[in-house]
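Researcher: Please generate the 3D structure of the following complex. Treat every line as part of one assembly.
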Amino acid sequence: MSFEKMWLNYQKNEKSQVINRFMLGQSIYVCISEGENQENRVIRTAAKELQEAIGDILDTHVDIYEKIHESVDECLEGIILRRTDVLKTPDAYHVKERDGLLSIEANNGRGVLYGVFDLIRRLQCASNLKRLDVIETPDNPLRMLNHWDNMDGSIERGYSGQSFFFKNHELCINDRTHMYAKLMASVGINATVINNVNVKDSATELISSRYYKYLQVLSEVFADYGITLYLSLNYAAPIDLGGLASADPFDSEVIAWWEQKMQEIYTHLPHLGGFLVKADSEGRPGPFTYGRNQAEGANLLARAIKPYGGTIIWRCFVYNCQQDWRDYNTDRARAGYDYFAPLDGEFLENVVLQIKNGPMDFQVREPVSPLFGAMEHTQQILEVQIAQEYTGQQRHVCYLIPMFKEILDFKTYCGQDEDRVSDIVSGRSYGQKLCGMATVANTGNDTNWTGHDLAGANLYGYGRLSFNTSLSAEAIAKEWIQRTFGLDPEVEHILLNILMQSHSTYEKYTSPLGIGWMVEPNHHYGPNVDGYEYSRWGTYHRADHLGIGVDRTPQGTGYTHQYKEHNASMYADLESCPEALVLFFHHLKYTHELKTGKTVIQHIYDTHFEGVSEVETMIQEFKRLQGRIEQQVYLRILDRLEEQLESAREWRDQINTYFYRKSGISDKHGRQIF
Amino acid sequence: MSFEKMWLNYQKNEKSQVINRFMLGQSIYVCISEGENQENRVIRTAAKELQEAIGDILDTHVDIYEKIHESVDECLEGIILRRTDVLKTPDAYHVKERDGLLSIEANNGRGVLYGVFDLIRRLQCASNLKRLDVIETPDNPLRMLNHWDNMDGSIERGYSGQSFFFKNHELCINDRTHMYAKLMASVGINATVINNVNVKDSATELISSRYYKYLQVLSEVFADYGITLYLSLNYAAPIDLGGLASADPFDSEVIAWWEQKMQEIYTHLPHLGGFLVKADSEGRPGPFTYGRNQAEGANLLARAIKPYGGTIIWRCFVYNCQQDWRDYNTDRARAGYDYFAPLDGEFLENVVLQIKNGPMDFQVREPVSPLFGAMEHTQQILEVQIAQEYTGQQRHVCYLIPMFKEILDFKTYCGQDEDRVSDIVSGRSYGQKLCGMATVANTGNDTNWTGHDLAGANLYGYGRLSFNTSLSAEAIAKEWIQRTFGLDPEVEHILLNILMQSHSTYEKYTSPLGIGWMVEPNHHYGPNVDGYEYSRWGTYHRADHLGIGVDRTPQGTGYTHQYKEHNASMYADLESCPEALVLFFHHLKYTHELKTGKTVIQHIYDTHFEGVSEVETMIQEFKRLQGRIEQQVYLRILDRLEEQLESAREWRDQINTYFYRKSGISDKHGRQIF
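Model: Done. Output below.
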């Protein structure tokens, strides 16, 4: 299985060589403590990574010298990697150059490794390291990936080939596994869940003797790069695996079974971080089956895992997926808040709630979940999805970091000074320690890892952003382009434009004004306006001859008032409601005039023609890169862009035709609608 | 694998015993010719079948005596089975009783067998056999079943369990196979195709040494009951099986390959009737690939099989399944006629075109295919579908014989005295000899054979009707009820009502006024108004805010003028167009007034409320049968009726809501629409 190296495909960089010639012929001094321990192994990884990168980028060999107990203070030049007590925050690092002496210091091994990758980034981007003096502290304690990989090798919502973790119900551990760990560590990822949250069949048995040995080997590979292994868990494991009659969290047999199971697990997998749990969701078993609430359900596992320092990450994606489309009162958007907000304070300290960014499901546009800011006494992380389930499935380019920035910057008005989503999940608002971000991953065994080469920017960007939420989407994209494609300014200019507009373009030609869905059921690719309109999933647009949208104000489902003020009023009041979300919150007539002066229907027509036109321009622009980027990659991207164009036209024509036929209102500009 | 005996589940019948007491203690005299031959074996089957039936129904043992060359003319009483030259038509029979002497005579063994089953039917229904004197001549030479069974055991469009012909890519031959042959022979079926028309993978290899031995055994089982085995064939077999580079009918290597292959096949399978071919249809390979027309494609096979007396049955289901929904000019309905009508006279004599009843695909209501009456010089059979793909999938009751009667009775105005569809496919119009009817079968390995017990009436009815197209749907249903459930008049009354109204009820709550489709794509169960509206399948309703329907008049796609006059004008003229089909032929405003005085939209609302209400009544009525039919069967039927009701409500609400939302026109009676 071959693979590419993404942004770590080091190339000799003459510009960097010239700027940083003081690095040539240097040595690396690694300060380690006595004996074998976790910190040492990561620091050793850091040294080797730096050696390799300097070798490739600056085309010079550096030696590594390990020092135990020895002082390095007498060093006059060279590169020193060491732990220090000065930095208090785990994973933070200090990179400093003074008079030819470059030091990377951190509170822990992981911090040192991150410092090294920071340095490597600067080398790739030809930054001047002279007089560098930077301290970076991660915003989020947890920076996780969630892989929805199944043990048969398929990936749920995977658009980049098959799993590289599993094949034929066995674990795969090979060069690609190492490259994965290295890539992820290079952007600050410190935790990963390797199996699908929908845990069935052989995946249930991951916590059994059949798999411990392999998992332990895998966790060691990850540990070298400071990444903690987590697993998804089947809440019905006491039944499916243990042969018990129940999985009731109040059943003493169940409690005993989990206690024994956790002891067994941690005997074999001492590095394991804990478990991710999707319970009572979309057919998955959970505490509701036994009349217990979500906290009671989660705490069962948290108590059992506590002796081993493990964490239970509990997803909040709980809603009624057997809704009747005729029912206008039930509102799926309300479900997360209704189920979880009243339980604030009831979850044990080693339970972390994992909250999807929006109340629905990773649409191209939806409001931020009102759960953020509603749970002061609960550990929580923000879940986003770089697997482009609803955003073009890595066949369309859709750079998601601008959207994630909007989410992180959203003010919750939760009453704290620092009240943005980024403040809450980082622990700044309420002081939580187990918090951060998780994303559904977009990787697979395609040689380029992410199917669409440009989707690599989402993988890279998620990591960088989760470490430092104040980075701009544009800065991240620039870094990624330079590291992946080199320093050609024309390449940077064109790809940056494509990435930065891609989300807006995708939004334009798909479902309008925040209404969401309108996709083909099941696989979620391509348009189908009524695809979910008469189904059980609670995702309706309620379009009729006169108008469209869901009234979620107090006159409707009341969802707006799950938000704190002023957000509640902002959304409920049509005047102040952001128009990008207006159909999410309001049912409007097609003839309703937006602030742009356009009617809703004309807005739909215009944006759909614009969206397609923008893709056409993207392709024209991209074609200027022929010969400037590797031909194979160029053709791969071009192929996807052309598919995107065809798909965008299908979106435009179906959406416009649907609303034209339904409303009977013509396009003002007389463009072709069918 | 257990199974029930359907209408051949003989029960002791006291009424029949009393009426026909002259039969008690009789013997059967079978006149056979010298040596082993096909006629003898079928006559022997006939004798054994009669012996069994008399034994069970009249509760009396009868002996069988075989006579060779001996005269039976001196017999004064008893039952005589024999071939006679008096009847000229194959499969016709003469059953006559005079003074205690009952004779069954026919031109061939199959006729004798049919005469026996006629007699058995009369015994089950307690008819008086005294003075019986009936000659029955089949209307259709070919009375075929098409099984869409795949070799992995699945059945395409199968709603009655798995295949009983195939399992794990092997043939199954067991008691069920025998019962199948007996059931089919009992209603006059004389030919069957056991594998799916979509021939792929291992099914391609049915014509290879891997399977000959088993097919030969199967064909012998069928031969005992006068049933000829046919197979579906992969037109690309020269490539897939023969390793040639082409399947071009003009390629000498391809011609030679087929000649050799047919010789090989008939060496191993001397009873084989021939092949059914789906070419150039829905992704299947065919002559179009090589720029040859359908006649050139079919004649290749016909020439190769001719030395062995075999037949090539060539399906006319050829259309562009990559249509663009934006294209209003292309009309899938036209395709069959456009491709085949110009080729009349070009097909060899042993090619039979198999024409679906309508131009689309087995909808609950569509017009008759204009190919009927357009091909004077071509052998042809009518294809219907008792597999209820679009008519409730054997979860809804939908007795199809009334619809088949309408199709058969349709006057084509082809210029012959006898010009109905039934006249054409029987050979009466043009004198064809290889013609008749075929149906896609509705059987599977469910114990009751057809999933829904009441779907047995379609299997029974198809056989009876294909033998005698002048039987009424009601008479057939009565027979079937009596033979299946016994002679309780209450059972007969209620089930007859349910069956006879079922098609009309189904039509009411599903797609209105002949427009068709509006089903969930792929599996075709349940409503989805726009399910096919923006897809590539050529099946559009073109509903907008003002109206619905497809203009197929000369002002539209011109499809109407594929019919002969007066049909062409009848359909093209809104005044004379049958309203049940009006949206198939015309695009109408919702406010258009039908002959009933109702508007189109009100008609839609009314029929949908009525349809559901009729199902409710059906269930009420059916419940009166508890205790009158076997409890297990009662519960099985009730279960399906309840599912039908739920599904009918979903149809009603989705259709009504869709059109209400689209038109903005309220129901006059203010009933609930969502």
